[in-house]
Amino acid sequence: MLKSADFSFLFLTVFYFLFFTIFYDLFSNLWMTSRYGSKLNFEKELGLRLKGENGIMKKKFSALQKDIEDQREEIRTMFAHKKELYQVCLICKLT
Description:
mainly alpha, 1 helix
């Protein structure tokens, strides 16, 4: 059977354990927030900036790809026009 002194000791032990556990968790969170909070904010801002730069680079890439395709098509038409001119020159030389 538990005596009242044993019950008081058990109660105080549990109380101090819970109190110090809560205090330790709170202190740890505050300490980690103060220590790593600025690093975390920096990394978040860096990630957002890189996402923005990535979007810009994708737009530039697609614009350059379109320019390349347009220039390839222009080269094809120029070769076709050159071929027609050679044929006209050959016909003129033959006559």
